[in-house]
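ok, trying the design again with the full structure, not the truncated one.
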């Protein structure tokens, strides 16, 4: 089997576009150099140099992004959204996520749902870095159980009441799997009281609770308290459009006046810290560039002591085009030693770069959007 290999030192990234050039970049004119590696019968390695070039706009966009030309990559991806290829969509989703551009992400999600008639990726807000906020306020964390009933709501009420007025109340809804009527009613009252008192709320795991309430509200014999809790959640989160749409449906369904929108400071939404999987993965983060190549050293050291190498790239935002040769060099060392290598969690932009450069033939790839 021939395995393409990027030859370090002879390849160059696409030249940056001049300031007067249009947004859309032309593909690199210099061919990419690869090496075909064949495993001989005597376990020897035969290397042959070949050449190639990007074969599609997706290939070109991956290389442009890797070369630090994200604007040009974005424009190129937008130009090919009219095709049935979903790869540029996922690349744009990840680009907007990396750049924290929620508005563009949500618009793209709407277009994606209409075009492919399936659920789009969900926006994940960046984790809050509380160390950068020199606030003296304390944080009280309240984690609700799997069943939101009257007793769980009482714990929430008592926890908020026991917290100083200037302190932050952090509420974790991520474990909730069931909501009864009493719990919904009590929880809505606690949130409404906290909102009217202008308490500082920080909320995590709320998407799951919202989805659960939406399912309950679609039932034939839905309960008004579930609707009212969802309305209060939208109010607490500052989601006025969702609130008003649901309020109209509530008025029609129950033939009563819905609650009114109130202009208050929205709660802060944070991500629940994900438990790290219990495995032997090396977890890299940030950008891998020639000026920040410590990650490659970690990769090499990690691979040297293992037969099955697992590298988690879920926190890596970009691998620079000029660093790909070194990256492949580490893979080749492991391959030559009979190791198996898995790269997981990387974004769609990195995944397409890996495919263009033949890394998909050197390692098992598990990108995050394949889930």
């Amino acid at each position: 089997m021939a395995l393409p290999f990027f030859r370090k030192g002879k390849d160059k990234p696409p030249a940056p576009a001049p300031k007067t050039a249009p947004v859309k970049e032309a593909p690199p004119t210099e061919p990419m150099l690869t090496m075909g590696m064949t495993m001989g019968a005597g376990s020897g390695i035969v290397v042959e140099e070949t050449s190639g070039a990007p074969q599609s706009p997706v290939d070109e966009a991956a290389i442009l992004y890797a070369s630090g030309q994200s604007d040009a990559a974005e424009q190129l991806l937008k130009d090919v959204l009219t095709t049935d290829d979903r790869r540029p969509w996922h690349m744009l989703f990840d680009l907007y996520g990396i750049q924290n551009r929620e508005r563009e992400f949500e618009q793209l999600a709407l277009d994606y749902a209409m075009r492919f008639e399936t659920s789009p990726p969900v926006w994940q807000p960046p984790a809050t870095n509380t160390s950068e906020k020199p606030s003296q306020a304390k944080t009280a964390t309240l984690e609700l159980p799997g069943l939101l009933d009257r007793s769980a709501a009482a714990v929430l009420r008592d926890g908020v009441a026991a917290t100083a007025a200037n302190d932050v109340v952090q509420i974790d809804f991520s474990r909730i799997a069931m909501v009864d009527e009493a719990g919904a009613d009590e929880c809505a009252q606690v949130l409404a009281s906290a909102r009217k008192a202008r308490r500082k709320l920080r909320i995590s795991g709320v998407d799951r609770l919202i989805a659960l309430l939406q399912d309950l509200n679609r039932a034939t014999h839905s309960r008004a308290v579930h609707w009212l809790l969802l309305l209060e959640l939208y109010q607490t989160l500052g989601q006025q459009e969702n609130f008003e749409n649901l309020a109209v449906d509530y008025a029609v369904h129950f033939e009563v006046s819905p609650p009114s929108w109130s202009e208050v400071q929205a709660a802060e939404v944070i991500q629940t810290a994900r438990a790290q999987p219990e495995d032997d993965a090396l977890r890299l983060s940030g950008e891998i560039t020639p000026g920040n190549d410590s990650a490659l050293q970690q990769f090499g050291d990690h691979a040297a002591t293992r037969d099955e190498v697992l590298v988690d790239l879920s926190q890596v935002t970009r691998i620079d085009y000029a660093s790909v040769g070194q990256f492949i060099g580490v893979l080749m060392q492991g391959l030559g030693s009979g190791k198996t290598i898995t790269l997981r969690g990387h974004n769609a932009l990195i995944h397409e770069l890996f495919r263009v450069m033949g890394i998909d033939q050197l390692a098992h790839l598990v990108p995050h959007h394949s889930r």
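Keeping the full-length input from now on. Residues 181-196 form the longest helix (16 residues).
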